[in-house]
Amino acid sequence: LEAPPALHDALRGLADSIDEVVLATDYDREGELIGVEALETLRAQHPKLPARRARFSAMTTSEVRRAFANLVEPDWALAEAAAARQRIDLAWGAVLTRYLTVECGSERQVLSAGRVQTPTLRLAADRERDREDFVPRPFWNVVLVAGDPSFEATAIGGPFWDEGGARALVALAGLGDTAIVEQVERRDHREPPPAPFNTTSLLAQASRMGHSPSRAMAAAQELYVRGEISYPRTDNTVYPPSLPVREILDRLRKSPYHAYAARLLERPELEPSRGPIHTTDHPPIHPTAAPGKRRPGMRVTVYDMIARRFLATLSPPSLSTITEVHLRVGDTAFAAVGQSMVEPGWREILPDEHEVAALPDVQQGQELIVREVRVVEDRTTPPPLHTQGTLLLTMQRLGLGTKSTRHEILDLLFRRQYIGGRSIRTTAAGRALVDALTIYGPDVTDPEMTRHLEDRMTAIAEGRATLAEVVDESRRDLHEVLAELRAHQPSLVRWLRDATFLEKDYGPCDACPDGRMVRRRARNGWAFLGCNRFPACRRRLRLSALGQRLPWAEPEAIPEAMRTPLATPAT
Fold first, then answer.
1. In CATH, which superfamily holds the domain spanning 138-192+318-379?
2. Angle in degrees, 0-180, between the axes of helices 489-502 and 467-487, rounded to the nearest 10
């Protein structure tokens, strides 16, 4: 993606007056590429211009000074990896989108596809299809309510897939007035603190809290520029030994988190938790200063998430006691499980939203009054639909996109109206596109193809491959995909045109036997109805003001009173 010509002109104008260049762009692939491209513009005027690189992960005075005191050479391989990504993504997106739109799309309808967005769309569609194909199966549990205070226990051997068996067990257990405590087991449970935040886990957590990942990312970027958090684009989940955790805690003593920070500073040793991903570009996301004064909003929410996670990663484990009670009523055995907190540890900072209730204190051999024995019917449940958070985590696991682009891919799918909703469902157009490409061009929707390209771009960054090699490989793959799509073009066109019209169907065409009237949009922006067999059938109908208020997705024919023929034939 080229910089504006005026920017190149400005750099060239400065070239002769510069003795040395320090590149201080963001330290990641994209930042390295921006810096290197600026350097190349300068060296076009001043070929021997020396250049060094400042690498920092926070916009704080101490971090920037440290970076400028330890300048390094620019990483040309890292920049080439970013350049390869730009070229490959542009080629795949432009070629596939143009082919699908021109050859398979309807009138003035863009059909978008891409190297990352289409496999991501398939993830959403596959999860939705799993739910649609799921057949719920009923089951029954037998529940005992006993004791004072009372608690619930479930019959051992359940769930029961036959209601008759559960009812028979209830009848048998109901003959007893008391439940005997046969066994009480207690065991300690240690829950380690969570891993530090990287970009994907931060945005996934924001999604779980009901916030848009894109808004959360924008807020994180603002906090970084203000010097309040570290660089928010990182895969790393392991703090480096050089991270000044005590210095950061000392800064947080002048914040709403002062009690937690002071308590941690009293500990002789701090052992941060570690996540599964260890990289060396940037540390995990953490606060770098006390929060500034501001009104409640997304920046406050994101800072609070980051600060609490940082404090939790430095805190001791949560310790609790899990109690399992076995009871018997006649010949029927029941069991109950409870949990009681002993030392909250990090859970004091991040409480558990789904905490298991504690059981009353009972002893082996104790008799408890039976208050109720009942059958509870339930059904097996399908896998949940993806949210933006779960899709981000799945994309990370499958190697789709990067820490900086995953949330942008989801935004694109929403803008294209291929997916929608907080619990993500595919639209008719999105489902049609991914289904057609899965059948007629499966490589386009296969995450493995995208992951392979990501691995090859990593090979460029590590010096194991060149930009030219990887771009040429990708070009050959794209040609093969395009050839496969063209081989099935008639079927692909029919599938996509039929399916994308389905959501906008307004009944049969009154001018030809096989056509359907579908909603279109004219060049001037007005909606109208046209036959889907255009240009074979040129029937068009104007929508009145009343007609435009019809629900977009209801496939009802428009009443005669609400439509009038166009004054001029279609051309």
1. Topoisomerase I, domain 3 (2.70.20.10)
2. 80
- Over 506-565, what HEC string results? EEECCCCCCCEEEEEECCCCCEEEEECCCCCCCCEEEECCCHHHCCCCCCCCCCHHHEEE
**Integer Cα distance of 52 and 70 in angstroms:** 10
Distance CA 75, CA 53 (A): 8
3-state secondary structure of 22: strand
Catalytic residue among 27, 99, 224, 231: 231
**pLDDT tens for each residue of 303-337:** 999 999 999 999 999 999 999 999 999 888 999 99
Question: How far is it, in rounded angstroms, from Cα 433 to Cα 119?
Answer: 11
Fold of 81-131+385-495: Topoisomerase I; domain 2 (1.10.460)
Burial class (CB in 10 A: 0-12, 13-18, 19+), 339: middle
Q: Indicate the DSSP class of residue 254.
A: T
Is 231 designated active site? yes
CB neighbours of residue 48 within 10 Å = 5
Rounded to whole angstroms, what are the CA distances from 430 to 101, 396, 437, 517? 14, 22, 11, 21
pTM more than 0.85:
no
Q: How confident is the model at residue 149 (pLDDT cuts 50, 70, 90)?
A: very high
